[in-house]
Specification:
- With about 180 residues, the chain is mainly beta.
- Helix content is about 5%, strand content about 40%.
- Strands 1, 4, 5, 7, 10 and 12 form a six-stranded mixed β-sheet that branches. The chain has a six-stranded antiparallel β-sheet with strand order 3-2-6-11-8-9.
């Protein structure tokens, strides 16, 4: 039959192409909440303008486990309900000592998220994603990371549909050649 002849043909000519490169390895440096709940401080009320600075007092903010959002948001493991237009979240974390290849945020956001590390803008992410993605950290924010105590602060704006926020830090290690 003619269809068998065509079905066996390599129409893409991929037989002589080089294999795809191996993907980079992701090493968790500061965990997100995919495997275990991480405590954050949060508020649903607009805070003072310096809310993202490391020495800002958040003792009046609520405590909750990430991820923050609404049930049914694709890709989100919701542990603390957030169903308003805005949320501001902060956490202190221990940065291990290390010789890092390329630090990135591991972040799942629905919708627009602005991330600060140690009071410095790390990333502004528009729109939404439905899974954790690796996003570059600005050089200025990356330069503030030091072994020991550090701060991550995130503001998320929600306009419609599902909503979610959670973040950590991963090292993107190139695959061995």
């Amino acid at each position: 039959a003619l269809w068998k002849k065509w079905a066996s043909r390599d129409t893409t000519h991929s037989a002589n192409w080089a294999p795809l490169p191996a993907p980079p390895k992701l090493v968790v440096v500061v965990p997100d909440s995919t495997k275990e709940a991480i405590q954050w401080r949060y508020t649903l009320e607009k805070p003072a303008d310096d809310w993202f600075k490391p020495d800002f007092n958040v003792t009046s903010w609520k405590e909750g486990e990430a991820g923050f959002g609404t049930k049914g948001t694709p890709g989100g493991i919701v542990r603390t309900t957030w169903n308003t237009d805005d949320i501001w979240i902060r956490r202190e974390f221990e940065m291990p000592a290390g010789n890092w290849s390329d630090l990135h945020l591991s972040i799942d956001h629905d919708e627009d998220a602005t991330v600060y590390i140690n009071g410095v803008l790390a990333a502004h992410l528009s729109g939404f994603v439905s899974t954790y993605e690796e996003e570059p950290i600005s050089a200025a924010a990356k330069a503030t990371l030091k072994p020991g105590k550090n701060t991550m602060a995130i503001h998320v704006i929600q306009t419609r549909g599902g909503q979610f926020i959670d973040a950590g830090i991963v090292d993107v290690v190139p695959a061995a050649a």
